[in-house]
Design brief:
Blueprint (H helix, E strand, L loop, with lengths): L1 E8 L8 H16 L3 E9 L3 H7 L6 E6 L8 H15 L3 E4 L3
Parallel strand pairs: 1-2, 1-4, 2-3
Length: about 100
Amino acid sequence: METLLFLAHTEADGSLHKSAYEALNAARSLAISLSDTTLVIGLFGSEIQSAANTLVMAGANRILGVAGAEFAHPRYCSDVQAIEALGKASGATLILAAGS
């Protein structure tokens, strides 16, 4: 059984960029095409609740998040820590994220 983790960094207002929704659609399609795959959404940023609220009906088994002021601006050091925590918490075997 595979666990597909979709990762997205939220915008300053807690929303998601258009590219994140496009990548989420790709993740959903991949999860459907792979048999026995669990889809988990991982969000990180200064505020994630708004994005989580918009993704409730996305068909994911779980939504996980890392939030705080230190994650407000994309930076390698803090992003790696958030991604590592989300990867471990989800038990992901595959990870998909939007590029910007």
